[in-house]
Amino acid sequence: MKTATELIHRPRAAEANMINPPIHRGSTVLFKNFEDLTRANAGTYEGILYGTDRLPAQRSFEEALCALEGGRLTRAFQSGLAAILGTFYAFTKAGDHILLCDNAYGPGQLFCRDVLSRFGVTFNCVPANVGADIVDYLKPNTRLILLESPGSNSLEIQDIPAVAAVAKARGILTALDNTWATPLYLDPFRHGVDLSIHSVSKYISGHSDILLGAVTATDRCAEALDHYCRVTETYAQPEDCHLALRGLKTLPVRLKQHEQSALEIARWLELHPAVGQVIHPALPCHPEHALWKRDFTGSTGLFSFTLKQEPEPSKLAAFIDSLRLFGIGYSWGGYHSLVTAARHHRALPSRYDGRTLVRLSIGLEDPEDLKADLEQGLARLY
Ligand SMILES: Cc1ncc(COP(=O)(O)O)c(C=O)c1O
Fold first, then answer.
1. pTM exceeding 0.90
2. Looking at domain 252-378, which of 3.40.800.10, 3.90.1150.10, 3.30.230.30, 3.40.50.700 is its CATH number?
3. What single string gives the DSSP state of each residue in 331-375?
4. Which residue from 227, 231, 314, 361 has the highest number of Cβ atoms inside 10 Å of its Cβ?
5. Residues within a 6 A CB radius of ligand 1
């Protein structure tokens, strides 16, 4: 069966001949009898113990994502950030050192700086386009490397197999935030990564109506992830898991449209006189285009561009505020197009330092309408 078919036909609803699975809410799950309770107390009961033991919608979503990723075990978290933080907690201990790719989701870096440091875990950033040179940043106590490829603002791509090979040879774990590509357009495990992280809030759910995260582990990491989630009783809301499961079923068709529309708009922007550089990994001008072509099987709807001249703040505001079809807001990956813009700066020197990056999340509107909206907006810049 092809992936799109499999996503639609698994899992099947077990109750009431409904095509969609039911949603259960609640804390208490009743045991059939005292013997089951006794088993639960002894840790040998196989059913669901309690609401925090992951209700059916959560389990179904985790199983579906795990199958799509080709991993051993998936666990859902209350948000993408919670999935990143859960990975840090589950796989590090006092005295360990973490390497974070400099373009990884910013709050993860803040968490390392302000919280993990209090528990004796240190961190450093590595360049956003790091590859085998990651070896120069390793310390004897480096335990975990977090990549995000492409990074969700400046879209640098890492040489994932090269980093994973260096890490593997030294017993270091590699985690990848795979939110941009989704499992459909990048298979992290094929490239040697141990843990695949998603903000399910983006493409997988696809409608900007939930916050949810997930971590999928290979054999090597499955037990530790499961154990961490058990002892912390990590769980996600059943309604959110239900919507995420629904999102998975339409992910292949949505992604194709996001990809096609974003590429059309990116190519059009490349020719626009007000635009400097269009930063989209599937364009040949992208500095790591060759890596994208080698490792990814598609591109999605999030990309950025610089402007030919740095705009006056008031002109930039006039451009952004004039857009009628692009909402001004954080997050991405939904059906509604979004825009953000900011001066780029990072912990390490990077190629767009000091430049304004306009970031577009191309939704499912007709690309002709989106281009017309951008055209009238860009005309207000100079
Ligand atoms: C690449 C990436 N990872 C993780 C997150 C965090 O996800 P969430 O908003 O679900 O916490 C974001 C949020 O924008 C993101 O862009």
1. yes
2. 3.90.1150.10
3. ---SSS-EEEEEE---SS--TTTT-EEEEEE--SS-HHHHHHHHH
4. 361
5. 79-81, 105, 148, 152, 177, 179, 199, 201, 211, 213, 331
